[in-house]
Fold this protein.
Amino acid sequence: AQSVTQLDSHVSVSEGTPVLLRCNYSSSYSPSLFWYVQHPNKGLQLLLKYTSAATLVKGINGFEAEFKKSETSFHLTKPSAHMSDAAEYFCVVSEGGKLIFGQGTELSVKP
Amino acid sequence: DTGVSQDPRHKITKRGQNVTFRCDPISEHNRLYWYRQTLGQGPEFLTYFQNEAQLEKSRLLSDRFSAERPKGSFSTLEIQRTEQGDSAMYLCASSLTSTWLAGAWTDTQYFGPGTRLTVL
């Protein structure tokens, strides 16, 4: 069975500084990996998706993630945090079509 | 296209009552999924349909839960004899059929806003 582990339950950054949200995956074959974001009282929104076409994936709102097979990682980054980035972020792996979510990382952005 | 919609957005019920939630997927999507999210956790898969056929059910889906998608369009999720442990956000998502391409699944699921259930 596939799984993802988000290494930090909470990350706090200052506005304008880089963001790093860490995710490791476990999969017996090349996985489909996603990052979703959930703002308070809003639905889950897809940030980006990896499906083996390119190891560096660019998403919406300036986010990107790099797939590293040797490290079984799929970390999410953004060069400069904005206040509107404060939300819950989920690393997700697809297994037979259904999604398996990590526990989530809450991102706080300080002014 | 207005995306995935769910109704109601909030439901408060007393323990032992039955509740039913509705999900309307994106119109051309043939797959529909239900997930449950409890406070502080990531969503957990419950079940999914391809057209009107229910293809997989999680062990989380007890006998008190039933889901239908009678015409391959909207879906309903019913919980009978609700318990306080059923309190959660129930999320619906839709997608096109998963395709195995270049060694990976290529589907993308789009989520609705969810139905928050509170069982008193």
